[in-house]
Amino acid sequence: MKKILITNDDGIFAPGIRHLWNALKGHFEVTIAAPATEQSGVGVSITAHHPLRLSEYAWSEQARAWCVTGTPADCVKLALNEFYTDPPDLIVSGINCGANSGRNVLYSGTIGGVIEGLMHEIPGVAFSCYDMNNPDFHQAEKHVLNIVNHTLEHSLPSGTLLNVNFPSRTCGEIKGYKLARQGKQFWAEDPDKRFHPSRGHPYYWIGVKLAQFDEHEDSDVSWLQKGFLTAVPIHVGELTDFNHLTARKVNFEKLYP
Predict the structure, then answer these.
(1) Which of 117, 120, 219, 221 would staple 124 via disulfide (CB 3.0–4.6 Å)?
(2) What angle do CA 174, 111, 232 make, to 5 degrees?
(3) Are 165 and 159 within 8 A, CB to CB?
């Protein structure tokens, strides 16, 4: 039986991770390692300035689960070192409350946990629901196993993850699957400046507003708005801009006095 590690960024008590496990239980040997508290927006960050605590959590007779006082990447790091002699076949993250479409993948702890797995040559799939409020996890759950099985049967390229988003419940039943390109939108800042009531110094809630763009018709953002499930293959195995490297290498190296 293939082995799957489940993580998320909404925390081990979030409903989305339970729906993810429901979709995979009985089909795989599942281990769960998730943050003790919500870690949305932490990306692939790790905890370096204070110790981590790892506690077993009573989940089910069918799976062992641990909560970690850190980020999703911390969870994956500890799980791979503490629970496995041989690595899992796949890391699956989510189901996130709120879309991780467009360039929001750069902020996402849901994506971050899967990226950490790629550092160890373990493929991964991240799942997110478009709706931040009242997401339809039940509909999403119906499609998880299908996509996970396909990913295991058709290996992802080294350094590539699959980023899956489910459309809003306002779109009704999912209209189909689209393997898409990454869109441009992202959560831009919308700072709310306030003042301490007794000391008077300012403080801020960073706030967010959705920065929107003219999207390519085959982007995840466009297809989600039309009611389709989207999957974007995101490659993080090689981060070099080779066009720039080739074009500027000689001139840059001549700068040395």
Answers:
(1) 117
(2) 45
(3) no
pLDDT at position 186 is 64
Is residue 193 situated within a structural domain?
Answer: no
Structure tokens at 64: 């062992």
In the chain, DSSP assigns E strands to 3-7, 29-35, 54-60, 63-68, 90-97, 124-129, 160-166, 177-179, 186-189, 192-195, 202-205, 208-211, 229-235
127 burial type by CB count under 10 A (0-12 exposed, 13-18 middle, 19+ buried): buried
- Count of structural domains within the chain: 1
> Is the residue at 199 inside a domain?
no
Between the alpha carbon of residue 64 and those of residues 55, 74, 184, 235, the distances in Å are 11, 17, 38, 30
Is position 170 within any domain? yes
Residues pairing with 125 in the sheet: 92, 162
CATH of the domain at 101: 3.40.1210.10
Q: Which residues form the domain of 144?
A: 3-184+215-253
pTM for the model stands at: 0.92
Query: Is the C-alpha dihedral spanning 173, 175, 180, 186 positive or negative?
Result: negative
Rg (CA), the chain: 20
